[in-house]
Amino acid sequence: MKIAVDASGGDYAPQEIVKGAVQAARENNLELVLLGDREAIDALLAQEGRVAGIEVVDASQAITCHEHPVQAVRGKPDSSIVKGIRLVKDGAASAFVSAGNTGAVLAASYLYLKNIEGIERPALGVVIPVSAGGPFLLIDGGANADCRPGYLLQFARLGNVFARLHLGVPSPRIGLLNNGEEEVKGSSLTIEAHKLLKESGLNFIGNIEGQDILKGRIDVLVTDGFTGNVLLKSLEGFGDFIKGMIGSALPAGVAPENMTTSGNGGLGSMLRRMDFSEYGGSCLLGVNGNVIVSHGRSRAKAMKNAVRFAGQAAGSGMVDAIRRELSII
Q: What's 61's DSSP letter?
């Protein structure tokens, strides 16, 4: 299995991206294609110690975080993002990972990979590992700010397949993020989406309010991309806040996430679950290929886990499973 990695994307590229990719290759027996400035990547690989199975593909262009996504994708065909997505399209790579311009990754995926038949809007699925009942999937995590009720039904179907394959839940419990449990509560979007989900044949358990998100009641939480992205970043920010508060109370040199379970009730384990880098990225569900979108501030640990996540998604046959799910509806 070969994973393509955007070595030019992210706040800490290429150093942290290459470092994390090398760690992933060593720990997960993966073949990698690193895309970016060949000279810079080769120099970093020499520092890290070359690993068998890592190929470098030169990309003379890079898409920055401030560029218009569609214009950048069309205007920079030799960028690491476009070339990486095209490797997946051509079957030369099983998945693509990028911490670069999210909009550009989405635009390139739509343009070259195309949507799976039956999906109008692909969505970002984000694994949230801090729930009391185990991890759950948040979908959409930010790909679609404006949604129709039918889109949310499609997100639920995508999340249902992901939860079965990746979270190991035979009949995922699907909830709709809303400001009340009653069917008549919410915006016109959530009220209409509730009706569709209730009639979908999925294991839909109803509306989920904000205070119930982390109580272990759901395996898939469905929402529009605007709300989902706000929720996601709020959870990340809260995790950073808690980690900072605990860290300020510890002796110098003691990292909160390294605390043992002895005497603190598993505090270290809890803080690690609140760290976005533990999963490394979001899975773009609904396109004809495996694409992992990582956080722009990803360092080596996050990138290592994102590459591992990409390998798991490709190995599970996620895209084919989604196609099968939609073909029987």
A: B
